Amino acid sequence: MVALVGAGPGDPGLITRLGAELLAQADLVLYDRLVSPEILELAQIARSMVCVDQLPGCHPDRIGAIGKAMVEAAQNGLRVVRLKGGDPILFGRCLEEVEPLIEQGISYQIVPGVTAALGAAAFAGIPVTDRRLASAVALITGHENPTKTDGNLDWQALARFPGTLVFYMAMARLENMTNRLMGHGKSPDTPACIIAQATLPSQRVLVTTLGELVAKARAADLRPPAICMVGPVVDCRATMNWFDRRPLYGKRVLTCRPNVPEEKFGNSLVNRLRAMGASARNIPTLEIVPTAEIGLPGLSQDSSPQWDWLVFSSQPGVQSFFAQLHQLGLDSRVLAGAQVAAVGEQTARALAQHGIRADCTNPGGNAESLAKQLLDKVQGRAVLLVRADRGREVLAQTLQPVCRLVEWIAYRQVNRLALNATEQAWLDEGPLDAVLLTSGNIASALAEVLPPHQVEAIQAGKTAVYSLSPVTSESIKKLGWPIAGEAKEPSMAQLAEVVQKGLASS
Ligand code: SAH
């Protein structure tokens, strides 16, 4: 089975749900060079990810090589995703790619994506139609088959077209395009713009007129990919622009959350920052490795568990505990007789996902405040503390003297030794405005993998460090790093907020 999937123009959120689901299931992903690394990360089980530019025999024309690779893989029973920039059926040579599949009787599906014109227009704040200004849109390629001398565009018709013109692949032939439009009577005063790197944090928009487009574009040194839009709707940007007006627009922000499921979707810290306009990237400095041993202290198959209280110190601990139960052929009913405590909101939420409501928790709290709450409750009781290998000792030390405490190391935190190529490339793109740190272990692991000049920028206060909590700040200070701000309460929402306040005023 083969799926041709549109990846959208750049922003990783713009792939469709169906596209993301197919990617998560794919064995082989063949992707266009421009597809963002975050979208590629959605592929979970793919054994092979190949950029189509790298396929053997892909030059001078890669279509043959792509068809061959798709046919071979599909015939071997692999699920193939051909991941294409924007929408697959627009300027994507879709039919040519599908033909070998049809010839070989291989089934396929085509999943649309947000095309560059519409992604760019939305992110630049330009309505491609407007009741008063444009009732039609033309999507045009500026770069036709190079063997044709003048292509088959009817420039006279385009010059007269009563609506918005959007040119793809136009940058190399901008002069030809503007001359032809004006030569056929289109006014040089017609509003025109170029939108480069649309929908990405590096998006740039040049607004001018048709007559001045070539000179202005040359001076602006815009980076591809770019589209060109011509028509009166372009002027609406002055009113409707939203992208550049967000509080963290133009800021580069690094977060270092471990790769736990919660951080991959929806409300993750990095998504919050992106919603505020930042160019944000999460680079985990720690890996969470669930415990390999089978068995839980105080639990045997034939007797009910020996715990009066279960205390969960973190969200990965919860996941690891239930994974362990699952492996033992058990489920949450083993908790029936026990009381349950959770440090902080995220941990309590993780428990709730398994149908368990914590009896004792401290929303936004830390280990100290939970330990205090528990002191009376656990007197003389059997307590299982589910924790990380390098977690803080506060809970264990506080509870130990008053109860029968057994600790279970649910997962280990392992420092990353090196960054991968896409993480490194992102760091190399330029200086960082801020780094957000959510634990001392994460901070010291970052100090080991960050390039030295970026560590120096942190030490010098040029890159602002924001911390999740007073405990985290203490550890960061031990690295000699100044702290620009600390979350009012230890939650991702509060951390994002303090960064917004700090950077917006800088
Ligand atoms: N199938 C794609 C288009 C492929 S042609 C789609 O539907 O979008 C490649 C051209 O798309 C580029 O030359 C450029 O004109 C445009 N393009 C793709 N991504 C873009 C982006 N992020 N910003 C601006 N233009 C983009």
Short description:
The protein is α/β, with parallel strands linked by helices and 506 residues long. Helix content is 34%, strand content 20%.
The CATH topology of the largest domain corresponds to: Methyltransferase, Cobalt-precorrin-4 Transmethylase, Domain 2
Biggest sheet statistics: 6 strands, mixed
Secondary structure category: alpha/beta
| Apparent shape | globular
Q: Output the CATH homologous superfamily of the largest domain.
A: Tetrapyrrole methylase, C-terminal domain
The CATH class designation of the largest domain is Alpha Beta
- The largest beta-sheet arranges its strands as 13-18-17-14-15-16
* Portion of residues within helices: 25-40%
Proportion in β-strands: 15-25%
CATH architecture of the largest domain: 2-Layer Sandwich
Give the number of domains: 4
Question: Cofactors and ligands present?
Answer: S-adenosyl-L-homocysteine
